[in-house]
Protein 1
Amino acid sequence: MKKLAVAAAASMMLAGAASAADMAVPVKAVVAPPPPPAFDIAFGVTGTSDYLFRGISQTNNNPAIQGFVELQLLDWVYFNVWASNQNWVENFQLEGNSSLEVDFAGGLRHTWGAFTLDVGGVYYTYPGGTDSAGLSSTDYNYWEIYAKPSYVVAPWLTLGVNLFWTSDMYATGTDGTALSATAKVPLPAFGPGGDFGWYLSGEYGYQWLSASAYTYDVVSIVGSSLVTTQETINGYSWWNVGVGFTYKAATLDLRYSGTDLSGNNCTYIIGISNGCGDKFIATLSFTTSLNALK
């Protein structure tokens, strides 16, 4: 019995020593993620087979080269400049002399967990000269304010809403509201080291237009007579769906887009009849920032 008692005591001492040793092992502290940089400059360049704005070609169905620079401060404030070639202003000038669009935007953008909100304003400008009728390309300049919330519902789904409003839609001096819903589904990475990513995404939107600015005459031949009727564009729907592939700073996006505008309506809005139809768009972009390059 004495041997058993000594063995039991020894066992308890060993167990106590093991527990003490376990307690003596330091616990690694949870390292908080580093704070976002107070300052960054993002920049990028894009080549696309067609520059679409809410489903409507801005380049008469031709390719575009685009670029941007964005100043980001305190993970909240941003200002950016974006530029692209365009042709739609020339469609309405007697002597086309504006082939550039330069947009200036700024606002507040921040993320709280799965929720991101971006609010701000943008001013669309069309630098160029003045044609023989005295119409300047800058007469087409206009502005919009916007709110763009998004939410990561799950690791495989992000939903968003884009709301834009102006009292000077397309420089007509009339109200215009655009509302769209977006969805993006990231797919599993692949390739060596999982460097290649890809995603599915889509958008459906509606652009409201003022009847006072978007009512026009349609002349048709009925028998031997010319008959004039009026058509009004109160608004239109646009949509797109596609797949994108990413590798480091590069993204290749393949997309199918369309609107419900007729050829006559398209001509009145953008100056050509075939700029609003269904089409396939390929876009290659490179985007990074100063901090990402460090």
Protein 2
Amino acid sequence: MYTGIDQDHVKVMTIERHILEQERFHPEATGVLTSLLYDLALAGKIIASKTTRAGLAEILGRAEEVNVQGEQVMKLDKFADRTIYRLNDHTGRLAAMASEEHADVLVIPDRYPSGKYVLLYDPLDGSSNIDCNVPIGTIFSIFRRKSPGGEPASLEDCLQPGRDLVAAGYILYGTSTMMVYTTGQGVHGFTLDPSVGEFLLSHPNIRIPEKPKYFSVNLGYQIYWSKGVQCFTDYLQGKDDGIQGLSLRYIGSLVADFHRNLLSGGIFYYPADTRDPKKPHGKLRLLYECAPLSFIAEQAGGKGSDGRQNILDIQPESLHQRCPLFIGNKDLVEKAEEMIQRYDP
């Protein structure tokens, strides 16, 4: 006789329930961070609803605007940026926000209460690939504010090293929509089930495999790299007693490349080069891309580095500071540091 579903074989964990259970690791938790993370999950659902029908919604293409980085803003970029801001400006959880798309700190309007956290985000990483239907993503970082409560948040609240992160994560919009996040208690991945409109736990306790499979880099720029980076690239291709068996995989969307290597093992790197004298430290942004992904990598057993030091130990000096990035398997990242130190003293 049927007696019901065997609960040992059906374990459905929603992202809301998972975030609530993670609170138990923080006895001092008030639930504010939990709500903030869930609001970001909601933002991901809304953005995903547009990315899956971007052509039909006529939001592909350029918005005829240039952002603070001097890059052409895509229509979907603008939509994602506004969605995240409008879902978080009035909740009383945040003291300020900062976006890769804006030159200055985004203050909380006076009509809303100010909270104890600061949110930094890249609304749509890889947006130059939107028109090509390549996976793109949202990256976010959460810090505790340092300025006294009751006062307007300051720039210093945003200029915090990665070691001070409270939480970080990303939402990947691809063949499926995934949200991956950490609060310092491991890395967990959730896949959006469109039939119920909820993120469900699909990748608990993610660890980067010890044996790497891939390296991800734009080899088209190799002639512009330093000797140390070029030697490291040769090492990854098995030259001069280098590592054997790695395959080159490069999408060109940081979130997508990072996500694949997080699950399969490997290293992504975007070093500084000599092409643009205005960008002596590379292309990627410390606060919006390098620090949050390095926090995730470290929680998964990996590492992020600028080639000389751990990304999480860098004290930001400006809101849009750029930084070289080597991220993935710890052994490979440390090999890159070793070779850069040897050839680029």
